[in-house]
Amino acid sequence: MLSEPPRPDDLPDGPTGYAALPPDYPPPPPGAGDGTATAPPPGGRVPRSSLRRVLAAVAVLAVVAVAVLAVWRVGNPPPVAQPGVPVPASSASGVPTPSTPGAPSPGSSLPRDYPAALSAFYTQRLTWSPCSDNPQHQCTTMQVPVDYAQPGGDRFTLALRKAPATDPGKRVGSLVINPGGPGASGVEYAQYASFVFSPAVRAAYDIVGFDPRGIGASSPVRCLTNSDMDLLFSADPTPDSPAERSQLLADVDGVTKRCAARGGVRARHMSTAEVARDMDVMRVLLGDPKLNFFGGSYGTFLGAMYADAFPKKVGRMVLDSAMSPNQTDQQEMTYDIQGFESSIDAFIAWCVARPDCALGRDKGAARQKIVDLLDAVEKTGLTTTKPGLSRIGEGWVGFSIFMCLYSDTSWPTLNQGLAQAFTGKGDILLAKGMSVVERSSSGAYAPSTYLQAMLPVRCADWPRSRTDASVLAAQQKAKAAHPLWARMTGELYDNCRDWPTPGRTEKGTTLAVGADPILVIGNQRDPATPIGGTKQLAKDLDSGILLTSDHDGHGTYYAGNPCVDSAVDGYLLRGTVPADGTTC
């Protein structure tokens, strides 16, 4: 697999092979979604492990919470255009309709332990209909208040997709899933349920994905223009003078202000804490006494927030490639360095063993060659054949290099992209970056791109960064000791300082006290959600159980490690947890 050349979709102007899907998704084989798919997709061999890692990478967090461009640098492969989701008659008026007395309701047998003011939401009906793109899946919508403090006000309409359990006789319940981002589509995630979960899990669970409030097909909030997003990638992330730094900060602050103004009230209510409350409404409407949940990457943040708010409602919860809501700026930076350097070292070790390695055969000198390349790119840029981006700088180049580290299947692309970059050309790297953020050659970003949601969610979810002398000194020391990481990360700066609402208040204590066991898993060498953050979340959760995989890349379950798959399946199917601290 690692000796294969780059996939055509990673190269300039490569075909996607499937209408409306990003290049990283092959066409689903016959039976996809109904548990019968066995043949590889047409057009070439796609190992299950590589596909699973791509799917897991649908969910990626902002690696450095205080980085001015980090929130954009560590994005994820984009969600696809959403399939048609029918609007149930019960919500056509824009107001949830409570179940009529005596009528069957999914949650009618559950305890009425929700606030009376939210009764209309907890008792609304879900009217499922066959999804337009796959009649074996079911789609619906539900409504939640924009502001839970004012439930009689404006509402978000959330899109849901269900892949029903393939063996109803073995059905355990619903498994709600979220691929993270923030900004990725859970509806799309459920669309590929047969690739994401084992046949045994598919047999036992209705896989239910949803687009979080303001995202995808759920009353989308689109607060950034094409020019705003281009500005974030074209700005110099490593300013060398006070004037350059002032320009960078002015550009990013301007984007933040414009997003807040365009997004309005809804953009100020896209926090993960509010999405967690939406999931509790969903749990009752699905008829589940407890929430069974699988979250990947930033979806682990959502799972942890739900578990902390509703610890007694936690069922079987798996948090894959994780991060903790309790992480401080300093911890985040430490984990980021560890995750990035372990991943780049793994790539370098693979590369220098090849006769065609763009970095040569000397492992010790390889990292410095990338540093030198980025320094040269900052000065002169790389030329490309893309209209409107005839020359790209550090922003696009660093982002694209980082994205190639998400999975070892992209290492050949990175090798060829670096080789081309050393000649002054950037087509291969730019094609990779553009495919991730869904930017067309004409300069238009797809409405579904996760970038639209990154800023409102990030600014709601994280406490405002401290800027005292000790923090700044620690940042400067880290950047000096890790020059390649420093160039990839860019200027360390809180790009939410001009957001109109405050960030989340830090808790800094044990999370989800009294919850059932929560399984937290992660790869030892993950550039996006470093293993340090995964370990911290397992420790911060009162009932956290840690399982690690001695693998590279982002995404752990169903990614080619049978030991991990067996442990996760045993937990989801039988409630059996592995010993805390197990390594596969």
TrEMBL record:
UniProt-recorded name of the protein: Alpha/beta hydrolase
Stretch list, region Disordered: 1-46, 85-110
Compositionally biased tracts (Basic and acidic residues): 1-10
Bias-annotated ranges (Low complexity): 85-97
All residue ranges annotated as the Peptidase S33 tripeptidyl aminopeptidase-like C-terminal domain in the record: 484-584
A Gene Ontology molecular function term of the record: nucleotidyltransferase activity
Alphabetized UniProt keyword annotations: Hydrolase, Membrane, Nucleotidyltransferase, Signal, Transferase, Transmembrane, Transmembrane helix
Domain (AB hydrolase-1): residue spans on this chain: 175-359
Top-rank taxon: Bacteria
Organism of origin: Terrabacter lapilli
